[in-house]
Amino acid sequence: MTLNSLTISEARDKLRSKEIKATELTEACLSAIEAGNEALNAFVLVTADKAMDAAKESDKRLAANKNVGALEGIPLGIKDLYCTKGVRTTACSHILDGFEPPYESTVTQNLWDAGAVMLGKLNMDEFAMGSSTETSHFGACINPWRAKDKTEKLVPGGSSGGSSSAVAAGLCLGATASDTGGSIRQPAAFTGTVGIKPTYGRCSRWGMVAFASSLDQAGPIARSIRDAALLLQAMASHDLKDSTSVDKPLPDLEKALGQPLKGLRIGIPKEYRVEGMSAEIEALWQKGIAIFKDAGATIVDISLPHTKAALPAYYIVAPAEASSNLARYDGVRYGLRVNGRDIIDMYEETRSEGFGAEVKRRILIGTYVLSAGYYDAYYLKAQKVRSLIKRDFDDAFEKVDAVLTPTTPTPAFALGSQGGSDPLEMYLNDIFTVTVNMAGLPGLSVPAGFSSEGLPLGLQIIGKPFDEALVLRAGQVIEDAVGRMPIPAPWWAGSKAPIPKKPAPDKKPSAAESEAAAKKGAAKSKPRKRQNGST
Amino acid sequence: MTKSQIDEATVKRIAHLARVKVSSQEAHSLQRELNGILAWVEELNAIPTDEIVPLTSVGGAKLHMRADVVTDGGKAADILKNAPKSEDHFFLVPKVIE
User: Fold this and answer.
1) How high is the ipTM of this complex?
2) In chain B, positions 30-69, which contact chain A (CB-CB < 8 Å)?
3) What is the C-alpha to C-alpha distance for residues A467 and A464, in angstroms, rounded to an integer?
4) Which one of A107, A130, A268, B72 has the lowest number of neighbouring Cβ atoms within 10 Å?
5) Does B84 touch chain A (CB under 8 A)?
């Protein structure tokens, strides 16, 4: 039995019924990491001893049935952008070499308070700037998915590529991620996982390495809608340490999942039908529309007129905020220091060596658009466009309850194939996701099908502010109809190979089958028959 | 928005403002990349925004007020723990005053 391929909800039920132990579950993940991480490079730091200690504590609480948390004994990966007390946190940048925060981020503290176990820190684009996890100082992360009959390495999306790769490959049961322009949803779509960026303010940003403060938001990546709901429930909180965190109660998200969609209005924005969109993305979108119709929802054509302006406006706002946020890395208080002739020279040498090419590019763009004489022309203009983008959504939500779009314009692409000579090419990955950040809305990516080459594709559901419950509920309808994505045949596992038993079947198990099997297994407290470690 | 084409000297000036050392070779490729990005964002000029109030906060929530009291502190050792160079509870930097 491969415990690491359980979903969080399955593992939770088995832990509570004493069918499995938290230590066994954590051990299974640690062996999967040991076997697979060399090929995938999803974890940049594994905290095996801490994980086993935490799992032992979970087992004690579970055995005593006392103070059992909502995520008791669930092993998770943590994006390297969350400060973890005494555990190296670098946002995968050279400039934060060896930084060991003396404090814990609010989001991760919430997870540990709920009983979750940290396996280690996950790879990401440097300072979350990228869509492929290739800009990491620790090297590129690899997607566990490969095109049919091919061995070419594909990117896991980004910036939360370590999170998406690790979850998709079964190295952990779930992961934290973060989303500034699509960094949870795009990697989720590329790896057949579920990712939700909640409403701005739902999760505290305290202790998260800042990229663009008015856009950054924490969220989970998981293997099912239910798991994403469980993780978000634990991660979200009102926090006095983050003045933008919102004091608004979060409903029971897991309970909300079963409610029918009948009578709900789903908006289809015509502006998302972009030029050159592939036929298979269009077909995927139509499939999503058909699923919602079948579920009794009403489909409404809507217009979000400023969609096309969102990405260029984002590339003013985000670099501007980044150039300001990243001013703190000066070689004085933490991280890398490169000596110079004088203090200014030390700053310049440190930042030149410490930052990668993409980060420098964005710092310079940000510095330029905020510099004297240009502020109104760029930054103020972009903030006005941002108002228009938000107004588009406000108007749309008068007519609909949620919006359905594709998550990405393409499936996962090959390593090194994008953005080499033109950074704009990489930026276009976020064309469907970035509007959501600009307006501060909740957005979910749910696996909805496969490309012609057998790669996962995702659909995005956008909700009204603070309506994560509805977004997840709608996502559950897609997951039920399409099926949860299997863990692909584990080509990445070394000779120890704890995951593989037999190659993946050609036919993917349907959601109905896996859900039914999961329920049955949990109810009877018996290990259920599994197909190649999928589900 | 101005039709801006930035030259290599401007790239170096911005880099200095941002305290990032760039070589001439880097400045050259950055000039091309930055101009590409700036030309692309020029398309925002086509959108009329004279009457529009810039968006500064998506939530629109009021900031929380709390009592003006000390809630944290006394952690000098923690704060200096990650410093590349420190002495007697101070960060050490190259001499700034002659």
Assistant:
1) 0.94
2) 30, 33-34, 36-38, 40-41, 43-45, 47, 49, 52-59, 61, 63-64, 66
3) 5
4) B72
5) yes
Mutate to test the interface with A, among B58, B69, B93 (most CBs of A within 10 A): B58
Closest CA to A134 of A413, A364, A328, A408: A413
Strands A265-269 and A402-406: parallel
A237 is catalytic: no
What Cα–Cα distance (Å) separates residue A250 from each residue in A76, A105, A208, A291, A526? 22, 20, 21, 27, 34
Say how far apart CA A420 and CA A424 lie, in whole Å.
10
Using a CB-CB cut-off of 8 Å, the residues of chain B touching A333 are 79, 82-83, 91
Tokens of A190: 């590329």
d(CA A218, CA A216): 7
Asked if B3 is an interface residue toward chain A (Cβ–Cβ < 8 A), one would say: no
A66 belongs to the catalytic site:
no
Instruction: Determine whether the interchain pair A423/B37 forms a contact, defined as Cβ–Cβ distance below 8 Å.
Output: yes
- Among the partner-chain residues B6, B40, B56, the one whose CB lies closest to the CB of A312 is B40
Q: Which residues contact A326 (CB under 8 A, 6 or more apart)?
A: A127, A355, A359, A363
Shortest CA gap B10–chain A (Å): 9
From first to last of its 535 residues, chain A has per-residue pLDDT tens of 599 999 999 999 999 999 999 999 999 999 999 999 999 999 999 999 999 999 999 999 999 999 999 999 999 999 999 999 999 999 999 999 999 999 999 999 999 999 999 999 999 999 999 999 999 999 999 999 999 999 999 999 999 999 999 999 999 999 999 999 999 999 999 999 999 999 999 999 999 999 999 999 999 999 999 999 999 999 999 999 999 999 999 999 999 998 888 899 999 999 999 877 889 999 999 999 999 999 999 999 999 999 999 999 999 999 999 999 999 999 999 999 999 999 999 999 999 999 999 999 999 999 999 998 999 999 999 999 999 999 999 999 999 999 999 999 999 999 999 987 788 888 888 999 999 999 999 999 999 999 999 999 999 999 999 999 999 999 999 999 999 999 999 999 975 544 434 444 444 444 433 434 443 333 333 333 333 333 3
Q: Is B90 on the interface with A (CB under 8 A)?
A: no
**What does the block give as tokens for A231?**
């993780």
Task: Identify the active-site residue in A79, A197, A464, A508.
Answer: A79
- CA–CA distance, A100 with A180 (Å, rounded to integer): 24
Catalytic pick among A159, A163, A204, A445: A159
Q: Decide if A452 is catalytic.
A: no
Listed in sequence order, the residues at least 6 apart from A443 whose beta carbon sits closer than 8 Å to its beta carbon are: A179, A185, A196, A197, A433, A436, A460, A461, A462, A463, A471
Are A388 and B49 in contact (CB < 8 Å)? yes
Measured between beta carbons, the chain B residues lying within 8 angstroms of A330 are 19
How far is Cα A267 from Cα A403, in angstroms, rounded to an integer?
4
